[in-house]
Amino acid sequence: MKIYVFGGGGHAKVVVGTLLELGMTIEGIFDDRSEKWGDEILGIKIVGPVSEGAKISGSGSAGVIAVGDNRMRLRLAHLLKGWRWITAVHPRAWVHSSVQLGPGTIVLAGAMIQPNVRIGAHCIINTGATIDHDCTLGDFVHVAPGVNLGGNIFLGIGSFVGIGGVIIPGIHVGEWASVGAGGVVIQDVPSYTTVAGVPARVIRGAQTEAEKII
After folding, report:
1. Catalytic status, residue 96
2. Is 67 exposed, middle or buried (0-12, 13-18, 19+ CB in 10 A)?
3. Alpha-carbon span 122 to 200, nearest angstrom
4. Whole-prediction pTM value?
5. Dmax over Cα atoms in the chain, in whole Å?
6. Is residue 208 predicted with pLDDT exceeding 60?
7. Would you say 89 and 95 are in contact if contact means Cβ atoms under 8 Å apart?
């Protein structure tokens, strides 16, 4: 199977590194920034724009969207309908056998995921993050490096937990909500809001309808 990566930024470097550690052969990287065409990430060439990748779906190829921004991953997934998405777990991550991982989800080095966790499509479980038992993560969630999630937590579609964030057990985080770096969440977070601090408080209220458009 031919493996392709979509996105040529910093997060792509981590994803490419993970795939190479797993012994996968990467055929190329697609990125829309023309100044990057011909450059390499860990020896893998950036071969052209995303539109070129869209043309080769269904030809024995599979891919991964290596973009940290949740909304951009959603846009690319819609643009690239028909692609087969791989799920990859770094060999130095630990994931219990009962965990469910959706297509396109990446679990990076040092992450730990405990029993009966369900994770949707195109999620990022970043370096050194921990997710305890019975959590549910929707599609396009990003759990940043060093995050600690207690048990029975729900993260809605597109939600983001910043570096070093902590969420106590049983919390519900709404869709497209964000937790700032180092935030300690001890109460539910409404959809489309941003919280930060210790304990975390709302620093940006629910967005307008125009701002919610993906």
Report:
1. no
2. buried
3. 26
4. 0.94
5. 50
6. no
7. yes
